[in-house]
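From the pipeline queue, job 12 of 40. The input is one protein chain; the requested action is below.

Action: predict structure.
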Amino acid sequence: MLRPLMITLRIRPLLLWTCVLVWFGVCITGAWWWWDQDQQMNDPELRAVLLIKLHGLLAQLTILLSGMLLSTHVRAGWARRRNRASGVLTLAVLGSLMLTGLGLYYANMALREWMHHLHVWIGLAAILLVPLHAVLGRWLRRRTFRS
């Protein structure tokens, strides 16, 4: 007889550190590009081109890792009713970043400017939101085990 798969809420260390490194990379490259191009208004140089290409690559890896987490971590958290509010908010923010990122490439010029600003502001908020979800989850887990 086959046993049902046990889905764990905790993320395996290799996947966790991969997520951390990719998240750190996508945040740094996005914020650096935004600062260099939007705030300093530097001419697009090789650095800016490489930054945005690296940001796009890391964004694709973020989408892949998000899909991996949906099948295990998100499913287990939802079933156990743990950290749902910040989890749903995190998924909504990541989904918004994916959609606005697509809009940066495929939207018409009038809509593209709006998408750019939306992507930047959501991205800057996400820099704090995703780690907050992780910290809140650990805090809730410790609090649950103490009681």
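Job complete. The mean pLDDT is 89.
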